[in-house]
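dumping this here so i dont lose it
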């Protein structure tokens, strides 16, 4: 597998990538760390333009992509408030994409509708990167998550990963479990019944021979966890707000919950959080969610340099 195989590639779903390709991205991300920190500089993507189209709110994904592009010597354009774009006049996503590809070398898209990124890729000759399509997928977040897990735990083979919270609507979870299946982790899903991991994901994992466990109670499984991946219950995705009220605040990871945890437990969260991790946990050695947040820059630098095609 050479880097040339990435050039011009869309990244819509984590299943678009092989295990070898994921490993190549993560290896390159490791080399990008000093550039992401500004300790070294590069002009690998000088003269190249990234279009960042965000039709849903974002802090980390948008800013880390912008930062990654700037650290690589390139430039950013974008739409962050679609009320100020021609979408507000009724322009279709297809026409927006056909327009933006005239102005940029790659397109980063976050959109509230599942399948929007796949549709966008059909209308674009330039590579499209899915940065969240409703409750669908968020593959580059998965690469960030895997990078962080490997930094903290080494090989993920036979490691116990406990995913807790909104496993139904959490797109980062949907992408992550597919990748963890490739790397041989054991998976435990902790959620209220109405927010459990979708049946399609369970089927896929069973087909891949992955050990899975469905739970309601975090206290029952915390002692065996190597990684605890916490997610926010996504109020905005519930069709019925009274259903949200029933499950809001179902889980809170605090130092009491962690009393039974392994000493080297890695606690992660794609963020933003609301109240599912108590601030007291931030001061423990186990809290890695802000390291995960930083890792978004080297990982996205690796992705951009591979698909746009600049050598660092
Ligand atoms: N992790 C993540 O997708 O965060 P944002 O919604 O802030 O981009």
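and the seq i came up w/
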């Amino acid at each position: 597998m050479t880097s040339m195989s990435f050039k011009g590639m869309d990244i819509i779903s984590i299943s678009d990538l092989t295990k070898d390709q994921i490993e190549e991205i993560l290896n390159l991300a490791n080399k990008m760390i000093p550039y992401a920190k500004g300790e070294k500089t590069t002009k690998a993507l000088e003269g190249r333009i990234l279009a960042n189209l965000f039709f849903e709110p974002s802090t980390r994904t948008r800013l880390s992509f912008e930062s990654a592009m700037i650290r690589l010597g390139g430039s950013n354009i974008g739409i962050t408030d679609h009320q100020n774009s021609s979408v507000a006049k009724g322009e279709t996503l297809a026409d927006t994409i056909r327009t933006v590809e005239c102005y940029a070398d790659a397109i980063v898209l976050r959109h509230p509708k599942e399948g929007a990124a796949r549709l966008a890729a059909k209308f674009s000759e330039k590579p499209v990167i899915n940065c969240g399509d409703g409750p669908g997928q968020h593959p580059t977040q998965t690469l960030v998550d895997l990078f962080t897990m490997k930094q903290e735990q080494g090989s993920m083979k036979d490691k116990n990963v406990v995913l807790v919270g909104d496993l139904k609507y959490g797109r980062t979870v949907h992408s992550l479990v597919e990748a963890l299946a490739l790397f041989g982790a054991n998976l435990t899903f902790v959620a209220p019944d109405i927010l459990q991991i979708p049946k399609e994901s369970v089927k896929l994992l069973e087909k891949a021979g992955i050990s899975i466990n469905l739970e309601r109670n975090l206290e029952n499984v915390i002692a065996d966890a190597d990684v605890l991946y916490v997610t926010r219950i996504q109020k905005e995705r519930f069709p019925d707000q009274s259903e949200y009220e029933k499950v809001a605040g179902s889980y809170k990871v605090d130092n009491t919950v962690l009393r039974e945890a392994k000493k080297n437990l890695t606690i992660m969260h794609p963020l933003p959080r609301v109240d599912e991790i108590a601030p007291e946990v931030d001061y423990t050695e186990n809290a890695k969610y802000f390291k995960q947040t930083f890792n978004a820059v080297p990982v996205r630098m690796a992705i951009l340099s591979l698909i746009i095609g600049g050598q660092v």
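The mean pLDDT is 95.
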